[in-house]
Amino acid sequence: MSWRVLPLALAAILNIAAPQQQAFTLEQVLSAPFPADLTAARQGGAVAWVFNDRGARNIWIAEPPDYKGRRLTGYLEDDGQEISDLAFTPEGKSIVFVRGSGANRRGEFPNPLSRPEGVEQGVLVVALSGGAPRRLAEGHSPAVSPKGDHVAYILKDQVWSVPLEGSEKPVQLFKARGEEGGLRWSPAGSHLAFVSRRGDHSFVGIYDPSSKTLSYIDPGVDRDSGPVWSPDSKRLAFLRIPATREIQSFRPHREGEPWSIRVADAAAGRAREIFRADKGRGSVFRGVVARDQLLWTDGDRLVFPWEKDGWTHLYSVPAAGGPPTLLTPGEFEVEDISLSSDRRTVLFNSNQQDIDRRHLWSVPAAGGRPVALTSGEGIDWSPASMSDGRTVAYFRSDAKRPPRPVLQAGGGPARELGPGAVPSDFPENALVAPEAVILASADGMKIHGQLFLPGNSKPGKRRPAVIFFHGGSRRQMLLGWHYNYYYRNSYAFNQYLASRGYVVLSVNYRSGIGYGMEFREALDYGAVGASEFNDVLGAGLYLKTRPDVDPDHIGLWGGSYGGYLTALGLARASDLFAAGVDFHGVHDWNDVITNFEPAYDPTRRQEAARLAFESSPMAAVKSWRSPVLLIHGDDDRNVPFGQSVDLVQALRQKGVEFEELIFPDEIHDFLVHAHWLAAYHAAADFLDRHLMSSRSTVQSPK
């Protein structure tokens, strides 16, 4: 059955109570532009970012002295074309960027509007002084030379170069095996470092444009990555992650063969190990949200993340080697990191002292006490140090105000960089502030969540409820608007459901982030046991026992990994969950293992396949009775579209009620704003018809 709008008259005939009059529309709550790719110029004081304004993506800039944000590009359509990889030219007068999304394994670029002429991905440049963007070449991942004359970039996994002024045609710098990426110019602009991925191993290489020579630094059987240059361009540091052929995508990675940091003499090509993680707990590398996992400071130290104590923290070590210094002690996790403009201080955000939010901090790279830059009930991320050395730009949100770029000088108050960008009818005052809750999983584990209560809740009135599961699973939902576009949208939909009278519970289930390594690397999670199902059950039982929830009208919704948990909950517990909306969920883990794991041990592979199937919704279809709405784009590059095809076939055979909303040529994280609106309208209508019955308003027992 395809989705359609149910007329109100038919709703009355079927004895389905209409939802309460909501305070705002989906269009309004999703109308605020979403900021991304915050970038500060090294000279001139400008800062730039991308605003996604209802699908129309544009570069915005703010410049001294007034720092009043303005739109730099003029893309006005909801056309599904992303803008990313912003990079200022050395003098700070132009911005190089990428427009369009990457190709899939067949070389197809996302074309979510099914345009007959097709689309492609290109590297462009636009001047801050104005004028239309100028296309430089087809490709992505641009690296602007510090000399300001050329841009290196990637095209079909190879390294190319084009003059910045466009005077010559692009040329391929060199031909190499593997998939090339991770381009990093030396500060002097004389050499280009890169990563060559070759399946089960990878190399770090250096290309010399003057001599047209190519060399690989200390090649081995492991996965080398993350090259970063010393400020004097003479040395190159990189990560070495031990290679493995184990089937372990969903095995807890609490310990393993330790990773290391190596530093090479760029001219001689010789490298030596200057740090190795301790064996045991935390010996498996876990990165942070940053362009570079290693930061080379002005004091000749390397800053890096490490989970030595079970939490993602920052450490620094002398580039010549020596004992590491813990920079961020405590039971919290560091997420975004960057260096100050003088390269002596590390800026970062974390959930220190506020586990379900993010705040900004600074700490000397050589060690010292971290200093809080922000606090309160906001959520702060993407710190970027301005060229004056005392001002920081970052993104901020809270429970009601959506993400926006701000500027903070010294210890003063933050000021918005894009005032007026949010539409006047954005329903800020009509939103509810979610409450932090901790519930017990079915196996006793403590699980954090956010509870959205309808704004006009009355004592003694039972309401329908919906549980939301995020994707990932390496995600954490917060007590406010999220820093990820996908989950910004999810937060808006949860607010919309609450405005319609639902009690909404967003669950941070095990295998997510924010609560330490052992929570993230949960035992038997995903394809090796589906232990998160305990959290699904726990959330359902928590709502069932609340006096404001109708226990017969509890639904589920989620996307990707959250779609998997939605389907798993419906398949295994239809007596508890009355209906669900499954956005592009995984339904049989075997498809994932088949596509991404090496077939090196037939016996172990058979056992893994058996366990993966038992951990999947498809294994429990026989007990699935609750209706479900399936939403999927058929160009999904994360979860194969066949996952929904196979589930529909199984549901048909069982006679289970289902509806579907399919977007031809759309990818996993929908590129078209109109598709998000259509999906959420369909989801709200589906939940209303299955959960908003007259029994939803029964009085709780005295």
Written overview of the protein:
With 702 residues, the chain is of the alpha+beta class. Helix content is 15%, strand content 32%. The protein contains 10 helices and 40 strands. The protein has an 8-stranded mixed sheet, sandwiched between helices. The chain is globular and about 75 Å long.
Secondary structure topology:
Layout: H1 8-13, H2 26-29, E1 34-40, E2 47-53, E3 56-62, E4 70-71, E5 83-88, E6 94-99, E7 122-127, E8 134-138, E9 140-144, E10 150-155, E11 158-163, E12 171-172, E13 179-185, E14 192-197, E15 202-208, E16 213-216, E17 223-229, E18 235-241, E19 260-265, E20 271-276, E21 295-296, E22 301-306, E23 313-318, E24 325-326, E25 334-339, E26 345-350, E27 359-364, E28 371-372, E29 379-385, E30 391-397, E31 404-409, E32 415-416, E33 435-440, E34 446-452, E35 463-469, H3 485-499, E36 503-508, H4 517-520, H5 533-544, E37 549-559, H6 561-572, E38 579-583, H7 589-596, H8 602-614, E39 628-633, H9 642-654, E40 658-663, H10 673-691
Parallel strand pairs: 35-36, 35-37, 37-38, 38-39, 39-40
Antiparallel strand pairs: 1-2, 2-3, 3-4, 5-6, 6-7, 7-8, 9-10, 10-11, 11-12, 13-14, 14-15, 15-16, 17-18, 18-19, 19-20, 21-22, 22-23, 23-24, 25-26, 26-27, 27-28, 29-30, 30-31, 31-32, 33-34, 34-36
